[in-house]
Amino acid sequence: MLNQAYKVLMREDMRRDYDASIGQLRVSFGPDLGHSSWKGPFRPQALFVDENACIGCRECVHHASNTFMMDEALGCARVRVQYGDDDTKLEVSVESCPVNCIHWVDREELPVLELLIRPQPKQGHGIFGQGWERPKNVFMAAKAFHKQLKQEATHHQSNAQETVEKETPAQAEARENASMKLKMEKSSGIWKWVYEILGQ
User: Fold this and answer.
1) pLDDT by residue (tens digit) across 162-180?
2) pTM
3) What is the dihedral of CA 32, 46, 56, 15, to 10 degrees?
4) Among candidates 186, 169, 43, which has minimal Cα distance to 106?
5) What is the set of domains in the chain, with CATH numbers?
6) Partners of 81 in beta bridges
7) 102 near 94, Cβ under 8 Å?
8) Nearest-angstrom CA–CA distance, 134 and 117
9) Which tens digit of pLDDT belongs to each residue from 88-133?
């Protein structure tokens, strides 16, 4: 068995096939694995399971099975449908969690948290260091992610303004010519008006 595993890991084509089979295993649990859907209208808050802290006790699934599900591959719970059960069942499921891994979060934060908590393939060198990884503290990672998005948006806006502010010499000359022409038309209009008054 070890020889077979070594053979798979040493050959790049076989290792690629093996990694793809692991990905297929995770995809087999559903096309939207990791992203919860909503039942009914959107609400300001949503439920989120910190899968790093979850111990797979199944208490939440037991109390609110229409909202929570177990990821058998990872051995942890996650939210499948937001508000899939009534509010009383949801409160009981949150209260019954022995490690407090279920959190109420703002609806706007949910997509980023769900994205970051999903295990991502880890870069490795040779046969070492490969596998899956996710941030140890998903809430801190989400804050850093939002901060980076704001910085990129600010940088993009400043670049756009610089593009608008910078003009070629030809553009500057055309602008000056147009400005001069407007001034001349305005002054000739004033002189025409003065002549009309003086002529009367």
Assistant:
1) 555 667 788 777 777 777 7
2) 0.59
3) 30
4) 43
5) 34-121+131-145 (3.30.70.20)
6) 37
7) yes
8) 6
9) 999 999 999 999 999 999 998 898 898 888 877 776 665 666 666 7
